[in-house]
Amino acid sequence: MLSQEQRQQQCLGQQQMQALAVLSLDGVGLEELLKQEEVDNPVFDLEKIAVSRRTPAPDTAPREEAVADKTQEDLRLMLESQLPADADAEDRRLFARMTEFLESGTGLLPESVQEISEILGAPLYRVERCLSWMHQMEPAGVGAATTAESLVLQAYHRQMVDPKLYDILFDHLEDLAARRYRRIMRACGLTLEQVEDYAAQIRTLEPYPTAEYGGLDTAAYIVPDLVFAREKDGWTVQVRDRWSGGVPYSELYTTPLADAAPELRSYLQAQRRHAEQIVRCVERRRQTLCALGRCIVQTQQDFLERGEALHTLTADQLAAETGLNPSTVSRALKGKYVQTPDKVYPLTFFLSRAGSREAGGESRSEILAALSGLLAQEDAAHPLSDAQLVDALGRQGITVSRRTVAKYRLFLGVPGAAERKR
User: Fold this and answer.
1) Residue 64 needs a FRET pair 20 to 30 A away by CA distance; which of 105, 203, 310, 368 works?
2) pLDDT, tens digit, for every residue of 154-165?
3) Which range among 251-265, 276-290, 341-355 has the greatest average pLDDT?
4) What is the tens place of the pLDDT at every residue in 57-116?
């Protein structure tokens, strides 16, 4: 029996997860969500939304979409079937909740273990344990924070631990996709033949490990989610949807319920609360996109006005400027586009990746390759603690903190020393 505090925490976690799901939607996906809400909820009426002239509704013409053979529920069941036999009931409940954080169609999980722990009110050690299990599961790459990390995780599963391969995956995926091989050659010290060989290896990996479970938008054209417009007083940022901040409630919302049957009264009250939560989620999405758009315009104004080189701007910088979590920024930007006076760009076009080196100067690929080697060679009866791994890496000339080792160990799906001991 859950206590009132536990029920409140569970309800808060569900609301936060719903807000993240709405934030992840592009304009077309949001429109589809609102239409479905209108079908399911008798107090929700889209006709009550005043269409804004400045933020036209996205084109809702029919689109050809791939029909997934499997569903998100199938994915959850498949992942849960791979849990270790000694996972207790609490771990299993937590793992099931964590699968709800996975992005539909990609299998990515941008939230950190700390954020998931706070949202679900779960102990951090349990969240870490569940994530380490997930990173060991099939489809390989599920639960990674980014596409690059998902590909690295898949490579690790296949025992592909070449640091140069990891360098390309972490820092040169866009160059690889655009066949800018010479840039990769210069950055990684490779020959053209070597780059082509790495490209062939990477093509055997799956950028969206859970694509067969649905959720990927296969539209043949792009509907921008934001508009950057140049006006007399400067640049403006507009969210391109038909949401105007109005309350889309039907007449049932204002109907007195005093004389209604108890069952009907309870049902309509629940539907009102749900509709209000949807309204809050959509408003939060608008505010978040506007805040991020303004930061991008302010930083990249030289590019927008004169086509000059982009300034350095990372997701962490956007998070600091807006007061958002980096994972929230990631969900907000992913898969969304902006219309500028010049052309349509992905929002991520305006960002540059953060440096790929840790404080000691080592690249992520060097740390991962060295750490995976140590873990593969350790004595199963006496597994290495994180402190011992720090010392062992230090003897190889790699200076990292214990926290960094724990982060990469967790990424590789390797639990703590106590759980590895046989």
Assistant:
1) 203
2) 998 998 888 899
3) 276-290
4) 444 333 333 344 577 788 999 999 999 998 999 999 999 999 988 987 788 898 888 889
Closest by CA to 213, choosing from 91, 108, 135, 346, is 108
- What whole-number distance in Å separates Cα of residue 70 and Cα of residue 305? 46
Q: Where are the alpha helices (H) located in 180-261, listed in sequence order?
A: 181-188, 192-202, 251-254
Residue 393 CB burial class (10 angstroms; 0-12, 13-18, ≥19)? buried
Instruction: Tell me the pLDDT band of 120, cut-offs 50, 70 and 90.
Output: confident
Cα(313)–Cα(353) distance, integer angstroms? 8
Between CA 386 and CA 318 the distance in angstroms is 32
Q: Taking a C-beta distance cutoff of 8 angstroms, is the pair 44, 38 a contact?
A: yes
Mean pLDDT of 275-292: 89
DSSP state of 347: G
Mean pLDDT of 379-397: 90
- Kind and range of the H or E element at 344? strand 344-346
CA angle, residues 13, 19, 25, in degrees to nearest 5: 140
Tell me the average pLDDT of the chain. Answer: 81
**For 158, which DSSP code?**
T
- Alpha helical stretches, state H, 256-347: 262-299, 301-306, 315-322, 326-333
* CA-to-CA dists, residue 298 to 236, 290, 292, 317, 318, angstroms: 10, 12, 10, 13, 11
Query: Residue 266 and residue 259: Cα distance in Å, rounded?
Result: 12
Query: How many other C-beta atoms can be found within 10 angstroms of the C-beta atom of residue 350?
Result: 24
Closest residue by Cα to residue 213 from 376, 404, 69, 398: 69
Give kind and range of the element (H or E) at residue 51.
Answer: none
220 pLDDT higher than 50? no
Which strand (E) or helix (H) includes residue 387?
helix 386-395
Q: Order of strands, edge to edge, in the sheet holding 337-339?
A: 234-239, 226-231, 337-339, 344-346
| CA dist., res. 63 & res. 279, Å (int) | 27
Question: What does the buried/exposed string (b/e) look like for 63-77 if buried means 16 or more CB atoms within 10 Å of the residue's CB?
Answer: eeeeebeeebeebbe
pLDDT at 342: 81
- Measured distance CA(62)–CA(252) in Å, rounded: 31
225 in Cβ contact with 34 (< 8 Å): no
Q: Taking a C-beta distance cutoff of 8 angstroms, is the pair 319, 332 a contact? A: no
Angle at 320 between CA 309 and CA 331, to 5 degrees: 80
